[in-house]
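== Sequence and structure of one protein ==
=== Format: two labelled lines per protein ===
==== Data for this protein ====
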Amino acid sequence: MFRFVKAALNVSGQGARQVRLSSTHSPEFHAKYGTGLMIGGFAFCVSVWGFVLTQTGITWNLSPVGKVQPKPWREVEE
């Protein structure tokens, strides 16, 4: 962290380039683990939403069909 702060204060930007190049992040990380992380994240989201939709008892009120009844028609009195 100290190297990053020191590089950020460097006006020329040379320090920032050195920190970026000496980073511990390998360029093969996404090629190696990216697909697995995406599939794992997708499975996690699907499982959490599956639990929420089926087990929590939340009433979602998606459609008013069959729930809203019209009032009976009233004849005009003469």
User: Anything to note?
Assistant: The first helix runs from residue 2 to 9. The mean pLDDT is 77. Helices lie at 2-9, 14-21, 29-55.
